[in-house]
Amino acid sequence: MSNDFLLATFSGLYGFRGLYWLPLLVGCVTGKSVKKGKRRDFSFILRTPENVLTGETVPLVFAPRIHYGGGNKLSNAGEPLDSLELHPFMSSTRSKRYRAASEKVDRKKSYPLAEAVSVLKTLPATKFDQTVTLSFRLGVDPKQSDQMVRGTTPLPHGSGKNVRVLVFAEGQSAAAAREAGAEFVGYKDIIEKVVAGFQDFDVAIATPGAMAEVRKLGKVLGPRGLMPNPKTGTVTDDTAKAVREVKAGRVEFKLDKNGNIAVPVGKFSFAPEALVDNGRTVIEAVVKARPATAKGVFVENVTLSATMSPGLKVDASSFLKF
After folding, report:
1. Are residues 75 and 63 in contact, defined by beta-carbon separation less than 8 angstroms?
2. Among the four residues 3, 195, 216, 235, which has the most C-beta atoms within 10 Å?
3. Separation between Cα atoms, residue 158 and residue 305, nearest integer Å
4. Considering Cα of 166, then 167, then 172, then 176, what sign does the dihedral take?
């Protein structure tokens, strides 16, 4: 009988920034591979000589086994371990800049928002102006329609992004949208353009009268989160006001299928005070959007990060009073 023991199986999950590993199974299995549907499963194998079974103490040797669907590929790499630990994966693929930034971040600490922004600003910059994002892990069930979390909020200092706006409207509403700065305005001609594959816009706004035809674009706009919706203020007769708010930095947030929300709060080049103000506004907006049916802890985790930086855990306790 083989003495290759499967001690723990891990499945790769994409987290807020990068690839992380989550323990799924701890057991002692001999001579069998583990499958988890179409996902790739990674196993830790303890190669042990015969005398381990007699109770003698020997060094443990680490060797990852990778399961690709129905086949197995066993790595030849191995190293002695004093104890079983989860080694960080993909560290060798991280850039020097990212590794230098990680050394400045205490992953075990929950930073007050202002301190988190200050630390983020000290991290090595990139060649482009990174987007700063707040990511939330919420204690709701995304499969329940009455626990959906979504909304909009204006950022006091804007988002720093040039937002391209498309408006489905006719007559006076269309003229008002053009005057307010909308890049693309029209009705049936714009609908035909979108059906043909046009996607060079960031926000879509429509009048209630235009929604009769715009609803037919659900399969095109829905997957990209661009479908006009009264709950987010993008279905309105006052198209000029909607365009101005979007241009000024109004951001939308919506719960994803994993119970997470990610909201941009500005650019890395923003002053620390501006990022703190924007971040505070976003946290308060998400907390106020708590569904009435949500039970227990609503905001489980908040992380602040830039596009190419490690995340900083934010202490949101001061925002959870309402």
Report:
1. yes
2. 235
3. 18
4. negative
Residue 305, helix vs strand vs coil: strand
Alpha carbons 287 and 321: distance in angstroms, whole number: 9
Place of tokens 């200092």: 157
What count of Cα atoms within 13 Å lies in the side-chain half-sphere of residue 156? 14
Report the pLDDT averaged over residues 302-320. Answer: 91
Residues near 203 by Cβ (< 8 Å), separated by ≥ 6?
A: 163, 164, 165, 166, 226, 234, 246
Residue matched to tokens 């499958």: 35
200: Cα separation from own chain's centroid: 22
Q: 263 CB contacts (<8 Å, ≥6 apart)?
A: 133, 134, 135, 136, 251, 253, 282, 286
Q: Strand 184-186 to strand 165-168: parallel, antiparallel, or no bridges (unpaired)? A: parallel
Q: Do the beta carbons of residue 190 and residue 199 sit within 8 Å?
A: no
Share of the chain above pLDDT 70, in %: 71
228-260, pLDDT tens digit by residue? 998 888 999 999 999 998 988 888 899 999 999
One DSSP character per residue, 145-184 reads GGG--EEEEE-TT--S----EEEE--HHHHHHHHHHT-SE
